[in-house]
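Appendix B. Extra example for self-study. Work through it before the problem class; the solution is given directly after the inputs so you can check yourself.
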Amino acid sequence: MKISTKGRYALRLMLDLAEHNTGEYISLKDISERQNVTVKYLEQIVTSLTRAGFLRSQRGNNGGYRLARHPSEYTIGEILRVMEGNLEPIACLENYPNDCPRAEECVTLPFWIGLSKVINDYVNSYTLQTLLDSASELAGNTYMI
Amino acid sequence: MKISTKGRYALRLMLDLAEHNTGEYISLKDISERQNVTVKYLEQIVTSLTRAGFLRSQRGNNGGYRLARHPSEYTIGEILRVMEGNLEPIACLENYPNDCPRAEECVTLPFWIGLSKVINDYVNSYTLQTLLDSASELAGNTYMI
DNA sequence: TCAAATCTTACCTTTTTAGTAGGATTACCA
DNA sequence: TGGTAATCCTACTAAAAAGGTAAGATTTGA
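Solution. C-alpha cells for the complete assembly:
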C-alpha cells in the first residue's frame, strides 16, 4: 500500500517546475541538484509526464522542461495516476465494472469501492497551486520582517 | 498502491469466521473450500492473526479457529494493518515523526499525512459486524417472502 | 562545430509478492 | 492406545515489481 518513488519524485519535480514557472525551460540538471534525484532517473519520470501532455520539452543546448498548464490546473491525483497507472487499492477495481462472477455477492467489494473513493477524492482535491500556497505559508515569507 | 492478497484474504477469512461464529472451532479446510484459497496459504495468514491475538486456535482432531472477540470489536483497519504492517502511503510515515532532516521544509509531507489520515480513518470506521450487516441487506434475506 | 541538453533502448540488482513443500506436533475418538 | 485430522513450524521458490544504471543517438543554440 505504497506510492512508488516515481510517484513521489514526479510530484516533487512538478512542484519544482511550478516554483520556477517563468516560461523558461528548466533542465533536469537543475532539478536534480535541487531535489537530490539523479538526472537519469528523472529522465524516466519526465518521459511519462511529457507523453501524458503535462510538460513541454525543448531539446538541445539550453533546453529543458516547463509546465504545459497553470499549476492550478493540475490535480495531485492526475499526476500520481500517470506514474502509478491508477490508485485503486485492489486489482478488482482497475477495470471496474468487470466480469468478476462474484461481484454480486461480494461482501467486501462495496468496502473497497468506498476506500478507492476516499483516496481518489482526497488526491483530486489538491492542485500544484494548493501545495505551493501552503508552502509559502509554511515558510512564512510573506510576513517576515 | 495495492493491498496484498494476504490482506484481502485475511479480511475474507475473518468475515467467514464471523458468519460462522457459533463458538465452535472452524477448520481451515472448511474456510478453504468456501473462500477458494489453499489451506497452506491460509495457514500463513492465521499465524499472523493468531499471534496478534485476533483468533483462538484448537489443535488436533476437530480443531480449528474461532474469533477471540465479538465481530463488532474488530475494525477492518486493525485486521489490514496486522497483515500489511501498516497502511501508510509512503515510507516516511512508517515511524513518523522521525529523523528526516527535510521534514520542516517538506512541502509534500502535510499532503501525505492528510492522505494517511483519510485512509486510516476510513478503514477504522468499519467493523466485521458492519460488513456482515450490509451483507445480509445485500442478500435481502430478512425481507424475502 | 562544439557543448549541453533531451530522447531512446536496454539492462541489472534487490525486494516484495504469492505462493508451495515437508514434516512435526497435538488431541479427539473409537 | 493407535489412527486420523487438524494445527504448527521452517524452509524454499518462482515471478513480478521497484528502483535504479548505462550507453549512445539526436537535437539545437551559441
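Self-check: The mean pLDDT of chain A is 93. If your reasoning did not lead you there, revisit section 3.
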